[in-house]
Amino acid sequence: MRSMTTRWGALLAAVVACGGGGSSSDSGSGTTPAMTPGTTPTVNPTAQNEITIQGMAFSPLKLEVAPGATVTVRNLDGIPHSVTSESTAGAFRPGAASGVSFDTGQFTGQRTFTIPANAPLGATIPYYCSVHLGTMATPNGEIVVTATPGSTTTGTPTTPTTPATPSTPTMPTPTPSGPY
User: Which tens digit of pLDDT belongs to each residue from 54-91?
Assistant: First the structure.
């Protein structure tokens, strides 16, 4: 019986070590929603230039960034991943779209890359994991170059002041002061 208990304990330890049991927490990251086929990609709700890889999935699937922005990629899985641009979504080959390309290389932890300052507005650059190709839960994500992603106008708007329209001056009517 002791040998059976030891085996179950070893099995349980292996499952937990592989991430198959329990939960992980990351302060401030929340949970990554599961994606089902046919769902619409969500845009980065916090307007941070960050892609997270967790559970073999990219989040958000659509990231809006300004030209010249630095993108941070956080790999929360215990295995190497990459964020590699491709010319066409689903090609799973490194490439450029609208003249923009990037590749974090295989990594665990965190990496960054920069979108060129001259990246055209409206450019959509698809990306994938060069390690896992189409086997990711969400095999492709995209970066869209926008002028001011997530910007809000702050402050009090000012109304331009214009001079009042001058009215036609009224002149007093002269009164005759002598004989005519």
Answer: 999 999 999 999 999 999 999 999 999 999 999 999 99
Report which secondary-structure segment, H or E, holds 111. Answer: strand 109-114
Q: Which residue has the higher pLDDT, 141 or 47?
A: 141
Assess contact for 125 and 100: CB atoms under 8 A. yes
CA dihedral 47, 82, 27, 71 (to 10 degrees): -30
The pTM of the full predicted model, rounded to 2 decimals, is: 0.59
The domain limits of the chain are 40-145
Contact present, 82 and 107 (Cβ < 8 Å) = yes
Joined together, the tokens standing for residue 101 give 């390309």
**CATH number given to 40-145:** 2.60.40.420
Judge whether residue 136 has pLDDT over 60: yes
